[in-house]
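chain below, 288 aa
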Amino acid sequence: MNETRASSLSGIPIAVLFVLLFLGCAALFVWGASHNMIPAIVVAVIVFAVVAFLCRGFFQVQPNQGVVMLLFGRYAGTARETGLRCTNPFYSKRAVSLRVRNFESSRLKVNDADGNPIEIAAVIVWQVVDTAEAVFQVDDYENYVHIQSESALRQMAQNYPYDSHEDGKPSLRSHGDEITRHLCEQIQERLGKAGVEVLEARISHLAYAQEIAQAMLQRQQAGAIIAARTRIVEGAVSMVQMALAQLSEQHIVELDEERRAAMVSNLLVVLCGERGTQPVLNTGTLYQ
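prediction:
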């Protein structure tokens, strides 16, 4: 069921007309009572009752709001024109907000793709775009948005690892844009049938569960140390190669294989050592 436009009229001119009819009915009733004119009194009462019943057709539409109308259980359309409106008095009406809304999910405890328990929460920004689907396709569209959003967040978290240990592999912590796009698509797929559009969905909380948080912190620290030492070694080897190449090209000194190995060893110790090196002065020859 898709939204259709309901027929309604501007309420202010009709309200003015009804006020004039009420005044005319009052004047007719007074005139009939003073002249003992029963037909005039009856007409005044009937017209007053009809106009009073027609007043049930008045309703207000606020900005960014839609009013869903039903006629004896049948959908009759949605009015989005703002201001005072007037329609069929037999219509039953229900206002639906079209404003942008957001909510933060509860912190869910799930297992990521590697089986590690994590805590995750997200902020979802959404709005109703089809009032008919929001009202008639689901029982309570606001509760439906909350439950389905958390379900999509839980499923998405199970498809990615918390932290990637392979270059290029997406993870919850390192690939925010891809995760956000995937989460939006997952939530929109579930909420589309309820006439809801997801404007944005972002992770607001992400952490390892408390029972493994300390172990995972040590693992991250070890990984960071290994990565740092790898970079240091790569840089040191590059610098040693450059030093040997320049010494050879510029004929500064001729080194045999044994002295080249000693020089490489000394340079690597200096470049890769965690502490400052202590220089040792050789007062003899190169070979002593």
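The chain has three domains: 9-96, 101-208, 225-272. The helical segments are 11-34, 38-54, 131-136, 141-158, 176-191, 210-249, 257-272.
thats it, cya
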